[in-house]
Design a protein that fits this description.
Distance between the termini: 23 Å
Strand content: under 5%
Radius of gyration: 14 Å
Order of helices and strands: HHHHHH
Structural class: mainly alpha
Helix content: 40-55%
Number of strands: 0
Number of helices: 6
Oligomer: single chain
């Protein structure tokens, strides 16, 4: 059961909607390649451990965000934050400000996507790992 932090809003559907909207605005296949997905999964686990941050208490949020990062890596050549709206994704990826880990995360440990959360964040879980199977089972059910 997912703990409901105080002041909880429907964060899971909000993050998923943002990522899915970002992914739907393309004619390319909706899922990332396994190569990019595995690269972003490994990056996310390593970065969480290195920075002392944790994935969201709801693994569905983690799965959708990692899939979105991997999809942008495939489409744009860079892991552009999938939780934001961009007028020009290619220009944003080239500018690198919102490429994961974004500048706010690197400078202040502020992750808009709720992928990397500090211990004191009400939405932080206790995990710094996620399997490919967990990611794909979540993203398969969300995109269906």
């Amino acid at each position: 059961m997912v703990k409901q932090p105080r002041g909880c809003f429907n964060y899971r559907s909000t993050i998923q909607e943002l990522v899915l909207e970002s992914l739907m605005n393309t004619s390319a296949p909706q899922q990332a390649t396994m190569k990019s997905l595995e690269a972003m999964r490994k990056f996310s686990e390593t970065y969480a451990k290195r920075t002392g941050t944790y994935f969201c208490v709801d693994p569905g949020v983690t799965a959708v965000v990692i899939e979105g990062l991997a999809k942008h890596k495939d489409d744009l050549g860079a892991p552009l934050c999938p939780c934001r709206h961009y007028e020009d994704k290619e220009a944003e990826a080239a500018a690198a400000y919102w490429n994961c880990p974004c500048v706010p995360m690197r400078e202040r440990k502020e992750c808009h996507c709720m992928l990397f959360l500090t211990e004191d964040n009400d939405f932080a879980g206790d995990k710094q790992v996620i399997s490919i199977e967990d990611i794909r089972s979540t993203t398969d059910s969300v995109s269906a």
